Amino acid sequence: MTGVAPDVVVLDYGSGNVRSAVRALERVGARVNLTADPDAVAAADGLVVPGVGAFAAVMEGLRDVGAPRMIERRLAGGRPVLGICVGLQVMFTTGVEHGVRTEGLDQWPGTVERLEAPVVPHMGWSTVEPPEGSVLFDGIEDERFYFVHSYGVRTAPDYVRVTWAEHGLRFVAAVENGALSATQFHPEKSGDAGSELLRNWLGTLR
Amino acid sequence: MSVALRVIPCLDVNAGRVVKGVNFENLRDAGDPVERARRYDAEGADEITFLDVSASTQGRATTLEIVGRTADEVFVPLTVGGGVRSVADVDALLRAGADKVGVNTAAIARPELISEIAHRYGSQVLVLSVDARRTRGDVATASGYEVTTHGGRQGTGIDALDWVRRAAEAGVGEILLNSIDADGTTSGFDLEMLTAVRAEVHVPLIASGGAGTPEHFVEAARAGADALLAASVFHYGTLTIGQVKDHLRAAGFAVR
Predict the structure, then answer these.
(1) What is the mean pLDDT of residues A126-133?
(2) Does A12 contact B at CB distance below 8 Å?
(3) CA distance B191 to B211
(4) Which residues of chain B have pLDDT under 50?
(5) CA atoms of A30 and A25, how far apart (whole Å)
(6) I need a labelling partner for B207 at 20 to 30 A (CA). Which of A77, A91, A114, B5 fits?
């Protein structure tokens, strides 16, 4: 990174606790704006799409602020976007919660389904298996990250870089695909390891 | 590959200060909550829990401000409970910087509160805090455990196992099981009650009440707890989080 702090927008559409995401990004050197203003979203060096709660509710919130189009436009220009938690899930084709199917943003083929494990939600710190050449996990391959989710994605296409984790079964913990990256865990709640991941992501901006 | 066992320090916060008593009585001052949270984070706490024991509106406003300052500095999950009565209370705490919110008495009085919160924010934000004890006097429940309110001073006659099962069905994402019989005694977690609750629900279970030695944490983990919460042993320096984790690791449990 060259001297000037990167500008990051954390998308503001009424999703849970975003204060931590803002502060965690500031801590690793970003200038952060919490907004859903289309011009600000388009102009930012990086866009973070947070998300907690139900897939359908998150999609509704995103649609209400016109986020699908904003995200499309950024990706068309190769401008970085980072999805977090349900912000990862909505990048896939479909979410199925309580038998209800909801269309996602369909950036990647795949379905978000309920986790199958003795204890659900998967809540706590888990290890991950990043692929060779991962940028996000550079230097933090062996760390644990904080997950809290009841749903996940169990398949991903070959052409994206997938980091896997396991809770009962194997699921997608992170995806890196050109300008679009996403994590199922919360880097902003994953202590020093999470900060390092955000720093790695900031390093890809501009 | 399994998820690590979580070790969680709990800070009882009254009007901006950390307090701790035995069986919820004789509260003693134990310092500044933000400073404490920062120190516990540095020692390796996997989450921080604040329990707001303030009796006044002003005390609660102070707690919101403390939640915000903590969230600005501490980058591990923060749970806040105590006096949460409505979806609006949950909203205020999440906005202030809490990741999870604990409900207790208000959900006993009005169980629909659980589904209201879960529907709006998802199960993952909602922790059911249960203060339970063995039944006494004329009270009888099927399991022998009873839910209490007012920090264990009032029985409700509600069967504790029945309550956690219903709450899990209604959408709580996690259960914080506090043993009133063991709370503040430092003579060990209530393993019998923990085992009984573990068999009843499939959401994560946090054991609370009675921790005194590192071995107590291992016992609770063996009884099926996903997370272990303690207050006084950490506040008064009897144990560090690192010591507890070393002991858990030596006993074969995954820790961060």
Answers:
(1) 97
(2) no
(3) 11
(4) none
(5) 6
(6) A114
Closest CA to A189 of A62, A49, A17: A17
CB atoms within 10 A of CB B18: 24
Rounded CA separation B97/A110 (Å): 32
Please list every residue in chain B whose beta carbon sits closer than 8 Å to the beta carbon of residue A123.
Answer: 3, 124, 173-174, 204, 226
- Please, are residues B15 and B47 in contact by the beta-carbon 8 Å criterion? no
User: Cβ A19–B97 below 8 Å, yes or no?
Assistant: yes
Tell me: ipTM over 0.85: yes
How confident is the model at residue B24, as a pLDDT? 53
In angstroms, the separation between the Cα of residue B13 and the nearest Cα of chain A is 21
pLDDT per position as a tens digit, A148-165: 999 999 999 999 999 999
Residue B27 to chain A, least CA–CA distance (Å): 31
A9 touches A40 (CB < 8 A):
yes
Is residue A107 within 8 A of residue A147, CB to CB? The reply is no
Asked if B203 reaches chain A (Cβ–Cβ under 8 Å), the answer is yes
Structural domains of chain A sorted by starting position, each given as residue range(s) with its CATH number in brackets: 7-202 (3.40.50.880)
pTM: 0.95
